[in-house]
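Q: What residues go here?
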């Protein structure tokens, strides 16, 4: 008789697959970080046995879309509420490096210069790393509760090789970017990401991205994209992504798919059938989604791309020049071809400050409110705040409608990603602490939009298959013992826009690499997490 480290008895196993029998009663043994399935009540011995009667045992959730690249590096070994929010909601693997921004790779001579540019996205002094191995080593020195892996950001490649400037890559620069990407993917990074609304990624042509995506294709790894426009021109932007997927041969993954802004509301009625048709033709295309009608991003992304040409120092210089501010005001009022104009698609009253480290009094308020209180034009108020914060401000944008969110959640090829942007301090979007329980509680139990098995599959097996996480995201013999136990009758998000780090309810326990990291909703202090290579 096997003597397990841990024996989980009496639970309803939802195994993370899309199989018809994905939900069934079974006992699960854990030994040396691996799983063994047993018939209910089978004789077995264990150092520790837990009775899961009435509870669901699922693979640990894989958050396919985070910006948590540096949060444990900044926030120290034991972290704070910001660090623990992910594992408290059952996430056993985070995939960072999204939207074109990763903490590697960089040419050695460019590391210091790049640090200033990355502050905007990650906050604090997180540093930059030459390659995936150096990134993994930095994380290995700061014990973590769950696992992490990273995509390679195209914006990071571009910032390192070309600099934060608005021009095409030379053939030599493109070769260098491809070589850096190739090395990072060989070392274990999970794919290539772009953020084509963000500087400097937005300065790239379609051809440049095709060349880089072809490198991902050669590794069998996905091209993961924040589309060039998710608002009024989302359909054109999706066409570009499909072209990049087709010409490069890379599997295509559309990040946080949405049709945002008043001119795009309802357009998921067109984008989703398009994706479904491509899949029916045999194209390997998937997407992810978070269960909220608000997004979150950098305040600087509200400005036209030319404003950031030259990097933070150049942006700051323009923001302090009243003539340049007038040009920005006009660009926002009239639009700029090829630029996703968030404010023009909504308004400053839909945008609130999430994190402004030196001006916490602004957090939670809309730009419209803050400007009115100061008797200022919103663009002037934004300019002053960005200068004071050296560009490092994140915002929340209430830009979507519920019907679109539900349609994307229900699409059979969408998986769940929080798009969490955790930074020490601040008032982040509640998705970082609430995404997975919100899907299980609100969209599965309350609304019946998805079956429990389908929702779990979107959080586990589908995600592991897409991002090459072998032996994860499923409960089967020999799989890695990354698990979550939850109560399907009570699981719910606690995080709100007012109080964004309130832990969820109904997450009973979380197990990473065979060790219990969360019990009864609280961390145990175990730190078995690793940086995973794919
Ligand atoms: Zn994004």
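A:
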């Amino acid at each position: 008789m096997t003597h397990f480290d841990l024996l989980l008895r009496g639970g309803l196993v939802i195994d993370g697959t899309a199989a018809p029998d994905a939900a069934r009663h079974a006992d699960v043994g854990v030994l040396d970080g691996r799983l063994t399935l047993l018939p209910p009540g089978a004789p077995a011995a264990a150092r520790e046995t837990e009775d899961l009667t009435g509870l669901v045992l699922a693979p640990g959730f894989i958050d396919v879309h985070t910006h948590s690249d540096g949060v444990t590096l900044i926030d120290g070994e034991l972290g704070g509420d910001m660090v623990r929010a992910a594992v408290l909601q059952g996430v056993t693997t985070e995939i960072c490096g999204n939207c074109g921004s990763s903490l590697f790779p960089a040419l050695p001579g460019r590391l210091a210069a790049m640090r200033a540019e990355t502050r905007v996205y990650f906050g604090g002094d997180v540093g930059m790393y030459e390659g995936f191995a150096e990134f993994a080593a930095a994380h290995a020195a700061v014990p973590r509760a769950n696992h992490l892996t990273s995509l390679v950001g195209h914006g990071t490649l571009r910032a390192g090789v070309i600099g934060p400037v608005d021009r095409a890559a030379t053939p030599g620069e493109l070769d260098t970017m491809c070589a850096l990407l190739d090395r990072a993917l060989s070392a274990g990074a999970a794919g290539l990401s772009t953020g084509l609304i963000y500087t400097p990624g937005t300065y790239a042509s379609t051809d440049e991205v095709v060349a880089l995506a072809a490198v991902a294709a050669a590794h069998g790894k996905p091209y993961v994209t924040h589309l060039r426009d998710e608002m009024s021109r989302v359909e054109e932007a999706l066409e570009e992504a499909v072209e990049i997927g087709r010409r490069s041969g890379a599997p295509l993954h559309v990040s946080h798919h949405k049709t945002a802004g008043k001119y795009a509301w309802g357009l998921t009625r067109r984008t989703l059938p398009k994706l479904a048709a491509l899949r029916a033709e045999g194209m390997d295309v998937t997407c992810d989604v978070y269960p909220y009608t608000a997004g979150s991003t950098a305040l600087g992304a509200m400005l036209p791309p030319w404003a950031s040409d030259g990097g933070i120092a150049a942006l700051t210089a323009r923001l302090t020049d009243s003539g340049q501010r007038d040009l920005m005001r006009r660009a926002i009022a009239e639009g700029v071809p090829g630029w996703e104009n968030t404010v023009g698609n909504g308004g400053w009253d839909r945008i609130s400050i999430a994190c402004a480290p030196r001006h916490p009094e602004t957090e939670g308020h809309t730009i419209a409110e803050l400007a009115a209180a100061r008797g200022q034009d919103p663009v002037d108020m934004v300019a002053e705040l960005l200068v004071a914060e050296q560009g490092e401000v994140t915002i929340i944008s209430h830009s979507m409608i519920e019907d679109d969110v539900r349609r994307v959640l229900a699409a059979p090829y969408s998986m769940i990603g929080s798009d969490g942007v955790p930074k020490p301090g601040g008032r982040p979007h509640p998705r970082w602490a609430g995404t997975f329980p919100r899907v299980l509680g609100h969209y599965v139990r309350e609304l019946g939009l998805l079956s429990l098995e389908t929702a779990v599959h979107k959080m586990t097996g589908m995600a592991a298959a897409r991002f090459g996480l072998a032996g994860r995201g499923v409960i089967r013999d020999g799989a890695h013992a990354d698990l979550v136990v939850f109560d399907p009758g009570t699981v719910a998000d606690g995080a709100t826009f007012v109080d964004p780090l309130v832990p969820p309810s109904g997450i009973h326990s979380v197990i990473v690499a065979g060790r219990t990291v969360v019990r009864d909703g609280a961390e145990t202090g175990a730190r078995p997490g690793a940086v995973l290579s794919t």
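A: Context that may help when evaluating the design: Residues 99, 195, 226, 255-256 surround zinc ion (CB under 6 Å). The mean pLDDT is 94.
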